[in-house]
């Protein structure tokens, strides 16, 4: 069986891994993503080739495990055993909520390495910078065809789409759009899925800067103290590395993101950068470069009503929508649980 997954984020990675475990070497997994790197909303950005060890996690900052959740705990333990994640050191942090049943983990090599590692374990073929815009039924066999605007790229027995729901509704054409249009109930429920928007700004420092003059590694900013900034981190220190080169990541508030959702990320990014220096006047201004990113679809604020982990559009050939849009929450644990449900359905249909 050959399965194509649209989206190179953590949901596709987890589904790929579970499919590999379920079907072994008899399944071929092929991933397409319009981006140039693996990670989706768990992305790590790097400074220039002159400063290759300086990076920031522009999306998710750390992963949270629930001790009492035996299902997801096994996934966390595997990542720990593989030296992909390690506990977050909460000394010198401000505003992190304490919960006796929760443990937070950072990824020393960057949060995107978590996604990359899971894909490697799944032995998935990665195809980046490939923007799939059309999914069609084949007229010649019982397969699905995936295409860009220019040409058909591949065909498979099953296609699983994990990109944000608004992109599914606005960008994907062909048979998938026709199936959604014909299923009025599903279409109405898909339209209910909502996301928050955030801007992220990363500051990269050259190795010559040996201190940022910041006493904390993570700072959740109270909304009464700043209307722009909500999260700040000395990124390498967050990942338990206190040596240069240093980097700093800032995320805006949801309210600010919603207000400027249609604005240019460079213009807004420059404004945010200045707000960072105003909020942290002791911060050195001798940066080597800056990363601006607009997360138009940052976190799911309203999930697909059924929260079943997936939506099945067609059984044979299998066409499925999956990911955190169909999960109980928008976090790593919920992505694991949603992936389990999606693969359970695929196994049921293939038996």
UniProtKB/TrEMBL annotation:
The keyword Coiled coil applies. One of its GO terms (cellular component) is extracellular region. Residues 169-196 form a coiled coil. The keyword Signal does not apply. Residues 105-346 form the Amine oxidase domain. Keywords: Coiled coil. One of its GO terms (molecular function) is oxidoreductase activity, acting on NAD(P)H. This is Amine oxidase domain-containing protein. It comes from Adineta ricciae.
